[in-house]
Design a protein that fits this description.
Helices cover 38% and strands 19% of the residues.
């Protein structure tokens, strides 16, 4: 049932990338696409989000800064975060509090596996 789907906040400043996530994950999860880290922080206060995917290079703040912000919040710090980027030092994402990282271009199988693992289903 639709109500049983996990909620995933997909944060990327590229609407094209958000559309890719929707095509890869939309049948399995309820996606909350967002292009602004600041708006995403507001959304996290209102919605029940089970997992976050975040790009590193964004305006307003980097994905690393975004992860640091949510990890400081007692109500948000337990939400798993997957950093998705073409950034060279993406493995640094785990040092910044992410549960996993994926290099772009995203492979559908890897994305689904990392989400399942991060949600405790894999």
């Amino acid at each position: 049932m639709a109500g049983d789907k996990k909620n995933i906040l997909t944060l990327d400043d590229s609407v094209t990338q958000l559309a890719i996530y929707k095509s890869l994950l939309g049948s399995q999860y309820t996606l909350w696409p967002c292009t602004s880290p600041l708006k995403a922080l507001q959304l996290l206060k209102k919605a029940s989000i089970d997992l976050i995917t975040v790009d590193i290079e964004m305006p307003e703040m980097t994905g690393f800064e975004f992860v640091k912000e949510i990890k400081k919040d007692k109500d948000l710090k337990e939400i798993p975060v997957i950093v998705i980027s073409s950034h060279k030092d993406i493995q640094d994402a785990v040092k910044h509090g992410a549960s996993a990282y994926i290099k772009k271009p995203v492979k559908a199988v890897e994305l689904r596996e990392k989400i399942a693992q991060s949600l405790g289903a894999g």
